Amino acid sequence: MRNPLALSLLVLFLIVGCAKEDITKSPTFQNSGDPLSKAELNDFIENSIERNGTFHWSSVDDHFLWSAAMQSDSLFAIGYQTRGTDDLNSKIHQINIESTAWVEIREEILNIILEGEQKIDPTITMEDLLPHGLPKVLPSMAVRISNFETVERLRMMPEVIRYFESMSYSLPSMVSSQGRSSSGCDGDPDYNINSGDFTTITPNVKRSWHMTSSDVQGAWGTTTGDGVTICVIDSGASDDQENLGSQFNSGDSQGRTVEKYSTHYSGWWWWRSLDSPHDQCGHGTSMCGLAAAPRGTDGNALGVAYNSDLISIRAVEDVVINTSDEKEGVKDALILAGNRTDVKVISMSIGTPFWSGTVADGIYYAYNNGKMIVAAAGTSFSWTSWYGVIFPANMSQTVAVTGVKDNTENMDRCETCHDGPEVDFVMVMERSSDDNRHAIGLALDTNQPKYIGGSSAATASVAGIATLVFSNNPGASRADVYNAMKVNSSFYPSKDNNFGWGIIDAADAVVE
To answer: Are 318 and 283 in contact (CB under 8 A)?
Structure first.
């Protein structure tokens, strides 16, 4: 049931967005010297998202921005550039932030911040301002600021400040216990799989019904993903799921590699530590499985590109890119994947209704290095009501995907899926007769598959299809692969305003 905008739009996310909105400017609140209340902040942000699709911190005045940081953790994301730089987004992968000009502008900004903070507390040092440390690759940093005058001063420097955002402010439902437990994580997995929702194929594996409408099985007659690496940026891959570990090479899936990394830190300063790549949520494990689980022998569900190599990166706790640790983690994951020449496809079934310059920098970096970034348009839950494409799927550098029901003659999004003009492709993943029957895939720690829904499942599946196309066309560029998918989709040559090019015919796309 879709309620009016109610508490929040946690819209959990699986991605797809709207970055071309008419950004609403914040109302003028009287600046009494105190931060605005959370109620005032939330009211404006929720209305802005309802109207525009994605919330941009650039749309608010200095007092609103400062208030949001003061009502969270006092951290700001600052993207900077040298004076005279233009169109940095297209060349962000080429700069050296340790060169003299870049170091000088970074120090200029940090000295302004230090000067302002020492007016409040003379004992503060530069180290105190940088809980995540100095930037290593990209010109962005998380900085602690409490002095309102510093916010005013920096926002008057557009020649060097590319973006200036509250880093961790969230709507209540994005951090509530209900929101966290429902944000794509395994609470009570549905293992009660209807026998009509899979086909058992050799050697002993279940092919999910949702692959049929895209003729994935037809594509397997040409390629199964050999020679291509897909990177899944999510909540990690479970150490307890053998099909992403000791059984990754089993049955008809052989000679491939699986690597697990983490870019997600917990804590600040000296007690900040890198988390394990192990998935404690279940969402990342399921996405890895939909994309690349083996065609094995244990009766579990297989992935679309079951002979591809796989990299899993734990960058978030669940599907919401929420905290400063998660934003930094996603950025670092995109840098890692962007630097890997073997990676062709990046799958991101994660997102947020808040635009993040930190994450966007990572998107630009990976995109400029030739990666196809497939992102979820968004998945909502019972306490949300907003249905636009979320960030980062709303970026032009990503391929936005959503899920639809199986009545393909009359395209209908899945019960919780977002749609909109930013969507590029769709994947059938929900029964029109029963919205509890979805795609099937890997669970955290068992050989029993579970149902997996939303635009997340659609995204990982389409990322698998893109991997198949790359596999059969080793010299193809990202544009070549996108075109092959586009011209072999159900709506081509006319793009639909909500469902993009439609359902991909994988069998035809791999030989385009």
So the answer is: yes
